[in-house]
Amino acid sequence: MLKWAVIFFLISVVAGLMGFTGIAVGAAQIAKVLFFICITLFLIFLVIGLLAARKLR
Question: Which residues span the domain enclosing 46?
Fold first, then answer.
């Protein structure tokens, strides 16, 4: 998912440089949403992993 966020970010940058501001804004918003979903899932799985490791002790 983080890979897709980076791809949409790059699309946004290239579109912005070429003057396609509407596409750039849309791609940037998609990249932002995917990034925050990825970070949220990472934190959830980190907490689950830490709790599972604590139970094994």
Answer: 2-56
1-10 pLDDT, tens digit per residue, is 789 999 999 9
Say if CB 37 and CB 1 are below 8 A apart: yes
Helix then strand then coil, % of the chain, to nearest 5: 95, 0, 5
State the total domains in the chain. Answer: 1
pTM for this prediction:
0.80
Residue 2, pLDDT score: 85
Q: Average pLDDT of 44-54?
A: 95
Question: What does DSSP assign to residue 19?
Answer: T
The whole-angstrom distance between residue 55's C-alpha and the CA centroid of its chain comes to 30
